[in-house]
Specification:
18-stranded antiparallel beta sheet; 5-stranded antiparallel beta sheet
């Protein structure tokens, strides 16, 4: 079913606040807006759905039988159709000057989706009300039937509730739907009471496409508008001339504008304008001429003085330069697009604290770079590299500052039952290995021990033991650190160690 968007939807795109700062970031103006919702009339749509019902038919009590029949049923439903719009209801503008606040408040009222009243209260307490009236306010069926319901026919401006002016646009010609005149009525209250009513403009002639060909100002001075480019654009304004008096001289520029497709044909049109201006019949009139690139913009503006201005556009059809007849740049526009910004995503890496010393094991620490921490206007690879650089530079330092250190409590006892005596210790090496440092004497029975297959010379007590037996060779002897902590030593040559001989070794095995 149709539905309307939530009034809090970000898709509405309404400006709630606008703040202006000076170069020193001092707030100099703030505008706050509030909005109201206006619903359209509710209409109703119809939905149809086909369903089936089943019933029994028969007379089993009289020897007959029952039968099941399917009967089609159409279900008719209705649902509401309406629209909802958000309109500006109040705007409060505050100007900050010399530690003072000057507040201007504007309140808006609407009717049928059109603004009806705007009441502005100025900092000095004065007010101005603008009231607009539309065809439905005058019950103008001709305009309403043409769906011209959002065109204001009159505008009343009143100040302080007394003085006012009213501008009314009239549509008196029943043969078309174009405006015919604009009338202004002004009134000043006592002590200088005056009422003045005058026609400030008459729209006298239109072409078959509804383009205005002639209008007259309040002094009844006519102005002719010439339409070219197949009646789509005004190419000349002739002030002081009625359309009827000059129309016989206009066909040449109209035809040449229709043929204007490139620089050469445009110059032909400009030459036609110059020829029109030089005609004796046009000497008493002020002629302004225009050329265009349709769907782009004006390319030449030639005022009554004849001093031409050329409008130059870039490859995106944006106005780039305005150049005078001598090639001097009168105005130049430079366009700078805001670059595309690439944002970093959430990334993390686990580090192990490595500054706990030989008596403790460093714990793991997860270093995280939050999403959006880094940006780039180059590409996503650049911003990803910034994140990786952060991790490489700061990750280990963060782990060394915030990771845990778990002390080890381990000792080494030697196998005195075999006459082996010594001393040593277990420490942490590089946070990944235990280091077993010790010295021992082989004892008086060493030559009788099975050094070729391995002799248990000591046992590690505490937590510094591998999960599984760890065999290795340190360049001098073979050794195995067993999971139960026993230290097994085997000579390289398979020969027994001499009696009462001292040895010093360092063995390494992994931290689990």
């Amino acid at each position: 079913m149709p539905s309307s968007k939530s009034p809090n939807s970000t898709e509405n795109g309404k400006v709630l606040s606008e703040i202006v700062y000076d170069s020193s970031m001092n707030r100099i103006q703030q505008t706050d807006n509030s909005y109201s919702e206006i619903y359209s009339d509710v209409l109703y749509g119809t939905s149809l759905s086909k369903n089936s019902r089943y019933f029994w038919n028969g007379n089993a009590g009289m020897g007959g039988s029952w039968a099941v029949y399917q009967h089609g049923v159409t279900v008719l439903g209705y649902y509401p159709i309406f629209s909802k719009e958000s309109f500006l209801s109040q705007s409060i503008k505050k100007d900050y000057l010399n530690n003072k606040t000057f507040t201007t408040q504007s309140d808006y009222l609407y009717s049928m989706g059109n603004i009806k009243n705007k009441l502005t209260t100025f900092p000095d307490g004065g007010t101005e009300r603008i009231s607009l009236s539309y065809p439905y306010d005058y019950n103008d069926q001709r305009l309403m039937n043409a769906n011209m319901i959002s065109i204001p026919l009159s505008k009343v401006i009143s100040k302080g509730g007394d003085d006012y002016s009213q501008i009314t646009t009239k549509y008196d010609n029943t043969s078309h739907l174009n405006p015919t005149s604009v009338v202004e009525i002004s009134q000043v209250q006592p002590p200088n009471y005056t009422v003045d009513s005058k026609t400030i403009i008459n729209y006298t002639t239109y072409d078959t496409k509804g383009n205005l060909l002639e209008y007259k100002n309040g002094e009844n001075i006519p102005t002719t508008i010439v339409w070219g480019y197949k009646q789509t654009l005004p190419v000349a304004k002739i002030e002081g001339a009625s359309y009827a008096s000059v129309s016989q001289y206009l066909q040449d520029i109209i035809d040449k504008s229709d043929l204007d497709v490139d620089a050469a044909s445009e110059q032909t049109l400009i030459n036609a304008f110059d020829a029109l201006r030089k005609k004796p019949e046009m000497s008493n009139y002020q002629i302004t001429a225009y050329t265009y690139n349709p769907l782009v913009g004006v390319t030449n503006f030639i005022p009554p003085s004849g001093i031409r201005e050329q409008y130059v556009y870039d490859s995106s059809n944006r106005l780039k330069q305005i150049i005078d007849s001598n090639g001097k740049i009168l105005k130049e526009n430079n366009y700078n697009y805001a670059p595309t910004t690439f944002y970093s995503s959430l990334q993390s890496k686990t580090f192990t604290r490595n500054n706990c010393g030989p008596s403790a094991i460093g714990g793991s620490y997860n270093y995280t770079v939050p999403a959006g921490q880094y940006t780039s206007i180059i590409d996503q690879l650049d911003v990803d590299q910034k994140v990786q650089n952060d991790i490489n530079i700061n990750g280990q330092n963060a782990a060394n500052s915030n990771g845990t250190c778990t002390p080890i409590y381990c000792s080494l006892s030697f196998n005195s039952s075999l006459g082996i005596a010594g001393g040593g210790s277990v420490s942490v090496s590089g946070n990944s290995n235990y280091k077993l440092s010790f010295g021992f004497s082989s004892g008086s029975n060493s030559t009788n021990l099975a050094w070729t297959t391995g002799v248990k010379i000591a046992t590690i007590t505490g937590t510094c033991k591998p999960l599984t037996d760890f065999p290795s060779y340190n360049g001098q002897v073979y050794y195995t650190i067993q999971a139960n902590g026993d230290v097994i030593l085997k000579t390289q040559t398979g020969n027994a160690l001499p009696n009462n001989t001292s040895y010093n070794y360092e063995f390494y095995f992994p931290i689990n």
